[in-house]
């Protein structure tokens, strides 16, 4: 089997997860896993989301818009989930261009909130905010959870990357983890927000970010305390010649 | 596979025991269990192909397959139930519901479905049922073809005798056709092409796949339901034992034809792996479903492949 896969790169590329779960300077960013024709079907399908919601009907409509058939929906075996993950991936990839326009690239921790806001505004521009709760429900189905979580982690990595985060310690994980949690919570809040221009959503986002800031300093303080105590214990043991 | 067996001393001694038992039974003959004498890939010479584990001339296979199916036609459906322990029904249901035939809401055109190697019409009737009862499509039609007139007659007989199928009379047509050529079927004319447990028996599989590509409309889909490899080796071992010792005997008792069912199990063993067959579909010009080239049913005993003509 191992021999077989090496001689058939095309299919083994399909079978293997192709995207890395983090950014690296050494490697270029992964493109979307769809070819041009598939992208144009899915793009057309997205224009039908405000009418049909995130559903396989959208994909069928997208196929017809491109001159294909109802049967062409077989190209997307996960149905609505394929459309949803395409939407989120597309918005994630588009974030870089938008951030460049706004001058947010490399702005550090203080632009993270702005980047989240920019990404969530993408939902508004696509006209899908009303359908988001449905999308989130589909993403929460057991078979879709791994795909949804991966997309969430990719997005949170993308945002920290754009903000210019260079951490190589445990912070790398805590930053991405906490941002993913904030993003998820804010997006859920957004689905139920009826305030003009989503003001409540942006307030909610601010509060969550300041919570993390507080929590972060507490966690940092605890880490200092723990490392100081550990250092003292080691020194004590050394002074008793119990440790070299 | 052979090298795998040598690493399983426990299982090997099991097989010794069972072969001893087998020799006591008058019904069973001695045969090797699930081990083709030649590797499946060694059929490079153009002119020969395999008929079960035997290597036969390219021209010979078609007539041999014809013999097999002519002899089992009337018992075909009963044998399917017995051999698969009823599992072929959920497999076929899954196959049809995955392909989702029938025009969807907002679609302007009725569909033309082609069921190749449709034989007794099992898949064709399921497709009509799905189109009508699920998608509320009362216009789309099915063309059921088979290379073997005896098998087709069985499907037509069911249409006449089974009252539950009478409602499909205007929407189904039976026609004798060779899957490799499909001579009477014009290019770009078919929405969905299905072949269920049939592609294995075709002499030149790549040619049949290319023909499928020819007759499908752009955007049309090829659906293949076929046996392939069972994954965890322990289940594969059980599966092989079942198929090589139980099925031919069952064929002897029920259909009175042991050789046909011996061919059946051998031909299953010779069919390419899931990944390899997906590649063959790609090589014929199809696009595979994004991120999921095939779907395994019951640990890979049966599998669904789809290819989309773009």
Task: Give the helix/strand layout.
The complex is a heterodimer of chains A (244) and B (310).
Chain A (H helix, E strand, L loop, with lengths): L1 H6 L1 H7 L20 H12 L1 H4 L3 H10 L14 H23 L9 H14 L6 H8 L5 H18 L8 H21 L7 H41 L5
Chain B lengths: L1 H5 L2 H16 L23 E4 L2 E4 H15 L3 H8 L4 H12 L12 E5 L5 H13 L6 E6 L2 H13 L10 E5 L13 E7 L8 H11 E12 L5 H23 L2 H13 L3 H10 L10 E4 L4 E7 L2
Parallel strand pairs in B: 3-4, 3-6, 4-5, 6-7
Antiparallel strand pairs in B: 1-2, 7-9, 8-9
Helix pairs in contact in B: 3-10, 4-9, 5-6, 9-10
Descriptive report:
The complex is a heterodimer of chains A (244) and B (310). By secondary structure, chain A is mainly α. Chain A contains 11 helices and no strands. Among the domains of chain A are: 31-77; 84-201. Chain A has helices spanning 2-7, 9-15, 36-47, 49-52, 56-65, 80-102, 112-125, 132-139, 145-162, 171-191, 199-239. In chain A, helix 6 (80-102) packs across helix 7 (112-125). The model of chain A is unreliable at 1-18 (pLDDT under 50). With 310 residues, chain B is an alpha/beta fold. Chain B has one domain (55-308): Rossmann fold. In chain B, 45% of the residues lie in helices and 17% in strands. Chain B is built from 11 helices and 9 strands. Chain B has helices spanning 2-6, 9-24, 58-72, 76-83, 88-99, 122-134, 149-161, 205-215, 233-255, 258-270, 274-283, and strands at 48-51, 54-57, 112-116, 141-146, 172-176, 190-196, 216-227, 294-297, 302-308. The longest helix of chain B is centred in the C-terminal third of the chain and has 23 residues, at 233-255. The radius of gyration of chain B is 20 Å and the shape is globular. Residues 1-35 and 37-45 of chain B have low confidence and may be disordered. Chains A and B meet through helix 2 and helix 5 of A and strand 7 and helix 11 of B.
